Amino acid sequence: MSIETDSGSIIPSGHPIALNGQPSIKKIALSEATLRVGRIIKIYNPTDQANLSKKWIEYDILVDRANSMGIHTQIVYPHCVIANLFGGAADYIEYTLRQESLNSPSNNKTYLGSWVLLLCMDSNANQSLIIGGIKHPKAPTQNPDDGHHYTFSFNGTLLKIANDGSVSLTIQGPTKSDGTVSSKISSSFSFNADGSIKLNSGSANTGEVDITATSHVNIKSSGVNTGAATDATILGTTYRTAEGSTNNLLATNMTTLSTEMATASGLCDSISALHIIPIVGPILASPLVASLGVSLATMSTGFATMSSAISSFESNASNYRQQS
User: Is 302 within 8 Å of 257 (Cβ atoms)?
Assistant: First the structure.
């Protein structure tokens, strides 16, 4: 990959000399003790044949240097790696930087890639570490009204800790080098200053929220509303306990009613047959009529018990749902 400078000069890929005949990286290799600013012009992945470490992503950084006379020159610091905050095998932070992308809608060239700070280990320019970055001229202007705050933005993921202590995480979708979103998503999760928590799956995607757990998902609250946040959620165990009790009572009484109705039907047939006999028929049927009365009274009690059970179940309906 060749490097085009602001003046239009071309540096062939891998060429070590600086621009405008100034000292090359080889000549300053062991005397570089100054904090430098540069922009990323090439990236070497660990699988790249030109990568030296074969373990970490390496970057070529184009640095603008000025000598004591104020003369500027550009030198490529090759195969720089990002410093690790923790420096451990188990504890580390890993991220990637953007290669420069020239945006030139006008005569003013603006490079949209990462602008980084370099320091060299033992003043050796061939062992340059990227220790951070500078404010990019195209980054958003800071707003003093934000007060004491923290903002983290990386590839469309935005984390904010506001002046009031609230925390929000917004997934906007991957961004281009200029910060514009390539495909808007806008899902968010926030801990608000009043202690409330809000999860929004966004409107530009499927809108689904999937929860997978190897055990129970426990929700302790005074109420859970669904749908348009107007429908209370049923308390399954409480509801089924009350429903089961009511159903058992209804089933028991229905069995009794079925038996009594069969008995009453038989009594009616017997009474009807006895009434055919002149004079003594009604006398003989009298005990049967009394038994029929008992059977009908039992059925009446059964119906009353079922009605009461249904009424009781309905009167406790508020106990079967989460209170809003």
Answer: yes
